[in-house]
Amino acid sequence: MQEIVGNMVEHIGSGFEAEIDASLDILADLVTHHLNKVAPFAILVKVQYNIDTVCHSCEGTV
């Protein structure tokens, strides 16, 4: 499960809208049907979210 979640997080960070949407849909489905298996890896999603948030904040300052 860690590899699957990690791959989805990698696709979320790709910057391509379709890839991001598909990965988020898959993650949502995994959480809905396999919460206990996915929960330990939620930190991967949070870290990617934090990275994306910081990067988007910095884009206008360069």
UniProtKB/TrEMBL annotation:
An example Gene Ontology biological process: DNA repair
InterPro entries listed in its UniProt record: FANCD2
Protein name as catalogued: Uncharacterized protein
